[in-house]
Amino acid sequence: MSSSETVVETKGLTKRYDNFTALDSLTMRVGKGEILGFIGPNGAGKTTTIKILVGLSKPTSGTATIAGADCLSESRKIKRLVGYMPDDFGTYNNMRVCEYLDFFGAAYGIGRRARVKRIGEVLDITGATYMHDLYVDALSRGMQQRVAIARTLMHDPQVLILDEPANGLDPQARIDMRVMLLRLSEMGKTLIVTSHILPELARICNVVAMITKGKLRAFGTLDEIMRDVQQRRTFEVMLLDETQVDRVGETVGRWLQERSGDVNAGAAEVTCAKTEMMVRFSTHLNDREVAPLLSHLIGQGETVVQFREVATDLEDAFLSVANAGDRSDTESANPPESETIGSLKTGANA
Amino acid sequence: MINPVIQREFYGILRSPKAMAVLLCLTVAFSIAVLMRWPSDSSVDLSGKQSLEVFRVFGYGLLAGVVFLVPAFPATSVVNEKNQGTLALLFNSPLNAFSIYFGKISGVLLFSLLVLLCSLPASAACYAMGGIDLKSELGLLYVILALLVIQYATLGMLVSSYVQSADAGVRITYTAVLAMFFLTLLPAAFFPGAGGLLSTVTGWLRNVSPIPAVMEIMGHSGVGTAGLKIASTTSQFVGFTLVSSFVFAAITISRFNYRIFDRSKAKGVITQDRGLVARSLRRLVYIVDPQRRKPGIPWYLNPVMVKEFRCRKFGRLQWLLRLVAVCAVASVAVTFAAATSATSWGVETIGGLMVLLQVILVVVLTPSLASGLISGERDGSGWALLRLTPLSSFKIVRGKVLSVVWTLGLVLMATLPGYLIMILIQPVMWLQVNFVLICLVWTAIEALAVSAAVGSLFRSTAISTTATYVAVITLFLAPVLVWLGRDAPFGHDTVEMALLVTPVGAALSVIGAPGFENYDLLPASWWVAGIISTVMFMVLGVQVWRLTRAV
Fold first, then answer.
1. What is the largest CA-CA distance in chain A?
2. What is the pLDDT of residues B43-65, one digit of tens each?
3. How far apart are CA A171 and CA B495, in angstroms?
4. ∠ CA B160-B166-B171, rounded to 5°
5. Count of beta carbons in the 10 Å neighbourhood of residue A305
6. What one-character DSSP code corresponds to residue B138?
7. Which of B271, B379, B389 would you mutate first to test chain A, the one with the most A CBs within 10 A?
8. How far is B278 from chain A (nearest CA, A)?
9. Predicted TM-score of the model (pTM)
10. How far is B394 from chain A (nearest CA, A)?
11. Nearest CA in chain A to B311
């Protein structure tokens, strides 16, 4: 994770409703200009966290700050610092886009002339200039989403919190949304984005927080999380000739056995796919340790077309983290807070 | 096999705790009404006078119950299904349009039947007291109420098939029901014995309302029913109700196809972008053109107030101006017509009718405007977004309340020309007119306070609108029901106490409307209105505080 100026920070954030713990000691931080992907299944505690951050809910314990302002006690500052877009956008019927934006601009105390200028700017940023005179309720979901983001930008907040912005959008609208969010990030805005569409998040987020059952299971950059999550990494060796496959498979198996010191390791980890002219193996070895294998194969006279790691996507990582967290919860009825999170978290918590 | 739509609709209503509460409350209310007048001494009332007194209160109460409760269910029936997407699923099933319609309306009718069944113990008690004929009185009352239920159910379904939101369905249905219930009586009241075609038309129009038919059954006549009770109203009412129900049903069924979904989105064309001819024409037609590009909200106006005006279809200025113009013309016409063609009435009767007209307008308009002030925001994410702005909760509520105050203020002021003409006819009445206007202002404030407070208690806009209409209509109609039973079964003091609940009675009393002259309601009525309004605004304040704090 980058070490830029911290804008959003939570420490031991906990929210309980009677006996139900919606959020359990959440600690994380997001730097300026970063895009945090907030991932979790329904009921994981994402919206609770967001509500606390925007001052709509009070934590049972712990603190949350945005640009140094406490989310609970300094709500007036927070309102200026944060732009929030809820899941259903929060649009009004019978209002034109310009009237809608004008209202929120006036509510934020922006002067009349400045408001007119600002409306033009935010519609330009969100690519919604042509919607200026259209009725908000007559817009498609993708168009409403642009208007809603324009609304969050009206008062030029430092932090944008977007709840499921890609929900229900068509592929083109998703691509547009992705471009728009990256553009906002380039403008120095800090973004917190929740989504169920993990590949979308993987493309735009530089920090990811994974949360299940109110507990932060993983936090850090995508690479850091992948590294933490993956028990074994998978590599593929593409060969030129089908006849090489069995031979290379044996060589790789022996090599891994020697390196890991496990007599059973080689046979169990190597897969030969003759039709694909490929040998696949998984290992817990790191890059530095695996690299000599390629030299070894070439030294053996093998022609290697490709030697690459099979990428694990965010969905795999999330499932792995969620399952590990759930297993951990099951094993210990009341696990110590720091241990549960500490085993996986990186970056700010590391 | 039973129509699956009937099962789903009927069970759906029955499963609702609100429906159970409604049935329970009605049963208790009817029982109390009968118990209050149950003979306590050992002497037998051979004339049947006492049972008739009970029967009248019971009958009018039942009529009011039907008017309040029945429209709420069909008004949301089709539009809710349409918005949830389940109507499309039904259309995609082998069920035809008639089966779907029949299933849906049967659910509502079965529930309404339950409401009527709840009143049977009370009506049986009335009958047991003697003096009431089973067929021509008790039976006929139930026939009229059953027909009314069918008419309101078909009307609600028709409205529901046109509107785009449940809230709009409730608002328009209640407005139509109240118009059919009250407004249809007015032409006959203004032109009694006019003779010729006018008399026939006003007579037919009067019988659109169930009130004359029910009054005929109750044997009610005399003060307060002037112009309302003319022979053979029941058969005309039955005929109109059957025909109108059939027409409403036929139109609704004809819409149960692609037409109900086939609606283009608003283009958002701006007047400034149109051609010169169109621009000039619109300039002539509209004083305030709704399609003109609006300037930004000025600093001196509450942005929430402006937003409220802008995001309501019936809240935009051009609609308000039309309403005000209609009110102004109507008030002058009423005064003028009464003064020229019904001089025997006197200024008091004219004034009484104008007060009633204005109260009906306030009662119809206020819940529609004020019920969704808070619930409309809570229904979506609007409330959360408003909380995130630097606007204080006080400023938010003030803006919302002001948007209704301005509307009601304009409506009230629109009738001033009528009162001016009244003072010209009889100059000594200027003080009375002043008092009446104060009463009307208090009426509007009380209606607004009750609507805003009751509406804020619910999350769903449709439910809050229904609850608000029921609360406001009860508040304003219940004293009138008590007044109808003045002297028998209710005594003078009881009626006076009931009339104190709203300033309407005081206004009618001050203007000297027939039947209200003997009640001394000022200034107590203003105090009561002030206290009720204060309490209601406090309820609204507490509710807003509860909703705005972080929990």
1. 76
2. 555 566 667 777 777 788 888 88
3. 68
4. 80
5. 11
6. I
7. B389
8. 18
9. 0.75
10. 13
11. A94
Helix (H, G, I), strand (E, B) or coil at B551: coil
State how far the Cα of B432 lies from the Cα of B436, in Å rounded to an integer. Answer: 6
Q: What count of Cα atoms within 13 Å lies in the side-chain half-sphere of residue A119? A: 24
Instruction: Report CA-CA distances (Å) from B502 to A51, A247, B145, B437, B530.
Output: 43, 98, 28, 14, 10
E strands of B286-337, at which residues?
Answer: none
Q: Tell whether ipTM is more than 0.95.
A: no
Residue B250 has pLDDT above 90, yes or no: yes
pLDDT of residue B399: 93
CB-nearest partner of A93 from B311, B387, B551: B311
- Nearest CA to B441 out of B514, B518, B499, B525 is that of B525
Shortest alpha-carbon distance between residue A233 and chain B (Å): 44
Q: What is the pLDDT of residues A299-339, one digit of tens each?
A: 989 989 999 887 766 777 777 777 667 667 666 655 444 33
Q: Which residues contact B143 (CB under 8 A, 6 or more apart)?
A: B238
Cβ-based neighbours of B425, under 8 Å, separated by 6 or more: B335, B339, B347
Among A54, A77, A91, A92, the strongest candidate for a mutation testing the B interface, having the largest count of B CBs within 10 A, is A92
Q: How far is CA B514 from CA B120, B181, B348, B491, B533, in A?
A: 34, 21, 8, 17, 28
Give the N- to C-terminal CA distance of chain B in Å, as an integer: 51
User: How confident is the model over B100-106, as a mean pLDDT?
Assistant: 89
Q: Which amino acid is at B495?
A: V
- E strand or H helix that includes residue A24: strand A20-31
Tokens of B441: 């202002």
Three-class SS state of A210: strand
Interface of B with A (CB under 8 A): 165, 265-270, 273, 293-299, 303-304, 306-307, 310-313, 316, 380-382, 384-391, 550-551
Test B268 with A79 for CB contact under 8 angstroms: no
Length of chain A, in residues: 350
Q: Dihedral of the CA atoms B534, B362, B413, B417 (nearest 10)?
A: -140
Smallest Cα–Cα separation from B127: which of B59, B62, B60, B51?
A: B51
pLDDT of B245 over the 80 cut: yes
pLDDT tens-digit map of B311-328: 876 656 667 777 777 777
Label the pairing between strands A207-212 and A215-220: antiparallel
Rounded CA-CA distance A58/B50 in Å is 62
Are the C-beta atoms of residues B379 and A95 closer than 8 Å to each other? Answer: no
Strand order in the sheet with A233-239: A270-273, A278-283, A233-239, A304-309
**Residue A259 CB contacts under 8 Å (≥ 6 apart), including other chains:** A285, A289
- Cβ distance B310 to A91 less than 8 Å, yes or no, reads no
Question: Where is B414: in which H helix or E strand?
Answer: helix B393-414
